[in-house]
Amino acid sequence: MVERNNTCKACEGTGMLADDEGWQYKCSVCGGEGVRDDNSGPTRILDVDATNRLLD
Ligand SMILES: [Zn+2]
Known about the structure:
- It contains 2 helices and 2 strands; from the N terminus they run H-E-E-H.
- By secondary structure, it is an alpha+beta fold.
- The protein has one domain (2-55).
- It has a two-stranded antiparallel ribbon with strand order 1-2.
- Bound molecules: zinc ion.
- Zinc ion binds next to loops.
């Protein structure tokens, strides 16, 4: 199925993520949609990683 290719790998399609303490929050990669936009997916993830490193 085509939809499978668009499943957000960060949240595995649930649209939600949880940290170690059990807090749930909207997936920042797909915006809670559970799917990612192929047009901007990989590039956006790389941008986020670069930003995190700068903040580190
Ligand atoms: Zn996601």
